Amino acid sequence: MKKPGGFSQYYSRISLVALTIVAASCSTQFVDDLPNPDVVKAKYVPMNACESPEGKPFFPDDWQKKIWIEKTVKAMRGGQGVRGKAELSEFMRLNRRQVVQKLLNDPFFADTVLDFNMYFLGSKLGAVRNKDGSFSNEVIGFPSAVASAQNTVKNGDYLQLLKLHQPSFILPLGEVTADKEDPNEVGKSQQEIRRVRIKEYRARMQKLLDWVQANPNDWDGFCKKFTDGKQDPNGPLQGLGLHFYLSFDLFFDPDFFGKLYNGCFDGKPENRNFAILDALKAAQAKSELHIKNIMEFEPPAYFPATVDQIRKIDMKDLGASSKYRQTMFTFPAKVTLTNSSTNYNRKRASYILKRFFCDDLTPINVESPGDHGQKKHGDDPSCFACHYKLDPMAGFFKDQGSFFTPADLEKDELFFDDGAKVKYSNYEKEWLETGSKDRKWRIGYIRAAGESKHNEYGENLDDLFRIIGEAPEVRQCLVRRVFQYFNTEDQILDAGYLDYLTQQFNTIAKKKNSSVAFKSVVGSVVLGCTFAQTDPVADRCYDSAPGVDSKGSPPCKVNFLLQKNCVTCHNVVSDENPLDLTKWISMPDGSSSFHHVDATGKQYSRNQTFEMISDRLSSPDPELRMPKHRYMTPGDLNELYTWSNSVLKQAAKEARK
Amino acid sequence: MKPLKLMALGLLVSSVAAAEVAAPMAGFRGFVETDQTVNQRLLRSPKTSLGTYVGEGTKDFDTALLELMGVYKSTGLTTGYQNAQPNGVNLLLWYLVFSGFSEDFGKLCEDSSLLNDETLTLAKPLCAWPAASARTEENLEALWLQVMRYDAPIEEYQAWRDFFLGPEFEKVSHQELLQSASFAIFMNPYFLLRK
Which of chain B's residues have a Cβ under 8 Å away from the Cβ of A13? Predict the structure, then answer.
């Protein structure tokens, strides 16, 4: 292809640009005379940040500093870039650390926290705000994300994100569309349409009450009117703009209209054992309360400009009963994390492992069913590779049926989302512990199938979220996601650096609080060398823990894991130990591998070495499995095993060429 | 000529850049982010959507095409960033979006309803193109920074500026200049791709 005109030089410059930026990576002398003493005390920005040799400027020129500022501001202000020349000049006067600290205190940093929280929970949006500046309604489906972001602004408990019980949040009432067939609504403003509907609700309710007073026990007649779209008082109420994430459960609450709907649903006498009039009057009272309180959230009077202005709502004020349950398992979870009569909560378990533990359930046949096998699908060795942790995790949800509706213990039944029904007392036996007398249930977070001392057990969702709140794997997962969020998911992360950042988070969370700890990690990541790249190479580690010299070491992705789990023994080649995992050497064919020799002292090929490593990592025989008679976390094991296999795949690919 | 040629240039740039690295990781910023960026920087009304340039919002297309342009697609709790890797289809969609939008952008001297005041103020001097008074580095830099801000290295700007100050655009109308110059920025990998 002919390169046209003046652009020919353009191409050759591109690579130079990338190289310049990589080479320039990192510095500025951090200063401690910062404007906000609280920020300094909080040590948001630790000293492992990307720095260049002493005396050299971090940015070769102003333009490159502006690139970093634009990227950083956008990343830390929920997608909003620098606001004009004046603000850019203001940022240019600051060093990188000051820029980050200023942004950590910006009210719009909460947008970033909220967006990140949504990402952590597996529901990242394109943007948390709509183009008119309003918040996306999706966010109220994730109250833990909102609560945590609000807490972060106030340096409160960021880890509210990991808690089960959450408040409800409400956004401005949504747009209502005029009914084209209703002359009372056509051509009216939003506010007017809502008032027309309130009037319509009251008229319908009064008409129905009058009819029920005259026909107190006529269920069939009542139901005909109550479920008729033109007479149902509930209809206009649902048309006021309350988002369905909040309204979905609300109107079916037994103390609202739920009892009456239930009575009309299938005509069973046990569902009609109350007076219609009493229930209707109760629903009327709830409706009036609902109207009174909901109108407080009518726009434009209510229009939260920042995350901390998103208001909490007590669902009881909108008509919910005291039995109304609001947890992190709100509407989006209910429709997504379904439970079927064959799945038995494993979808829910997979979600928890993936999002909170960063465990993608990579199947590694290292765990053996041993004596715990119960002749089920999950006991087949190849299936057991995932099911040993998936099934016990699923048990935490055993009481949650379709749409997270609790099992009906009185009727001894539980409904699935596929419409099937099960006898609950039989169903829960799926998780009865048969291999140990120490506990009743085989429910827990399983790190090692045969070694219960490493595992965390429980019975229900409260136990699960207690474990999530305490497990080191979750904190590490959170920190990993921060790195991925600000960089990209496919950017390699040095396990040692991850460990370092996690320790930083834990230390600051203990000394100060989790919000300061979170900000500290964010600060580190955006000041890191990876974030400073304009064209990062995905399989290169740009950041490492302080004091680490990676020259001649195995690839950064696994080096730390090998140090942590393997090199106590495999640190030098000897008669007893043919493999040195500290030496990453060049092979005659141009590839790289570990120093690994056979009995005659001859170096094994890369394929031979990695086949042996994979076998040893995944052997069910404790005498062969590495690390021998030692515990390695599932995360470390996954990482090493996956990497080892990827090397083999790469070798096979190269051999085919 | 210009849009296709300029897009080809942009693609070649990205392929050269990709050849430099072992495992390039750039993907599209995605429709939502790019649409918001264009809105924040250039547009008068937040209700304007780039999607209209591929028929989004009409009954024939609705939102399906936009999903091909890089989106976080959420089905409740299983979000994934989809269609971010450039391919023939999504690149064609971006081409359609920005060839249409830059055509409207090129009309800014005659119709000021689309763009915000700041953009109009900065771009207006280019309405005198090809007069010598308009063909200045200063005017082009103002346009570049208004659209790209500092998302790209200076070399990108310099190459773009030199190209449009060169002989190929010496005698074209202001409309063609604005259309081609803005299109070249929109299709630049630093504008479209996440780095």
Answer: 155, 159
CB atoms within 10 A of CB A362: 14
For CA atoms A542, A543, A547, A548, give the dihedral sign.
Answer: negative
Cβ A170 vs Cβ A311: under 8 Å = yes
User: In this structure, what are the phi and psi dihedrals at residue A29, rounded to the nearest 5 degrees?
Assistant: -80, 115
- Categorize the per-residue pLDDT at A135 as very low, low, confident or very high, splitting at 50, 70 and 90: very high
Per DSSP bridges, beta strands A456-457 and A444-445 are antiparallel
Q: Which residues of B touch A81 (CB under 8 A)?
A: 37, 40-41, 149
Residue A80 contacts B where some CB pair is shorter than 8 Å: yes
User: Are A5 and B31 inside 8 Å of each other by CB?
Assistant: no
CA dist A323 and A106 (Å) reads 39
Three-state DSSP class for residue A415 = strand
Query: CA gyration radius for chain B?
Result: 17
* Measured distance CA(A430)–CA(A398) in Å, rounded: 9
Nearest by CB: B153 against A11, A67, A332: A67
Whether A11 has its CB under 8 Å from any CB of chain B: the answer is yes
- Residue A80 in contact with residue A73, Cβ under 8 Å? yes
Kindly list the domain boundaries of chain A, sorted by start residue.
190-325, 339-470, 556-656
Taking alpha carbons only, the member of A363, A487, A344 closest to residue A420 is A344
Whether B39 and A131 lie within 8 Å, measured CB to CB? yes
Ramachandran quadrant class, B89 (left: phi over 0; alpha: psi -120 to 50; beta: rest): alpha
Q: Which helix (H) or strand (E) holds A612?
A: helix A606-618
The C-alpha atoms of residue A61 and residue B175 are separated, in whole angstroms, by 34
Are residues B17 and A14, on separate chains, in Cβ contact within 8 Å?
A: yes
Phi, psi of A310 (to 5 degrees): -70, 120
Into how many domains does chain B fold?
1
B74, B85, B140, B183: best mutation site toward chain A, by most A Cβ within 10 Å? Answer: B74
Domain residue limits at B69: 2-192
B16 pLDDT tier (thresholds 50, 70, 90): very low
Q: Which element (helix H / strand E) includes A592?
A: strand A592-596
Interface with A, mutate which of B25, B75, B83, B117 (most A CBs under 10 A) = B25
Token couple for B76? 């409740």
Determine the length of chain B: 195
Q: Is B1 exposed, middle or buried (0-12, 13-18, 19+ CB in 10 A)?
A: exposed
- Label residue A631 by pLDDT band (50, 70, 90): confident
pLDDT at residue number B72: 83
pLDDT digits (tens, 9 = 90+) for A588-623: 888 889 999 998 989 999 999 999 999 999 888 888
ipTM of the complex: 0.86
Burial code (b: 16+ CB inside 10 Å, e: under 16) for B58-73 equals eeeeeeebbebbbbbe
pLDDT at A635 over 80: yes
- H, E, C per residue of chain B: CHHHHHHHHHHHHHHHHHHCCCCCCCEECCHHHHHHHHHHHHECCCCCCHHHHHCCCCCCCCCCCHHHHCEEECCCCCCEEECCCCCHHHHHHHHHHHHHHHHHHCCCCCCCCCECHHHHHHHHHHHHCCCCCCCCHHHHHHHHHHHHCCCCCHHHHHHHHHHHHCHHHCCCCHHHHHHHHHHHHHCCHHHHEEC
Residue in chain B closest to A67 (alpha carbons) equals B150
B40-88: per-residue pLDDT in tens? Answer: 999 998 778 899 998 876 544 456 788 899 888 766 566 678 888 899 9
pTM: 0.85
Least confident window among A125-129, B23-27, B91-95: B23-27
Cross-chain Cβ contact B153/A537 below 8 Å: no
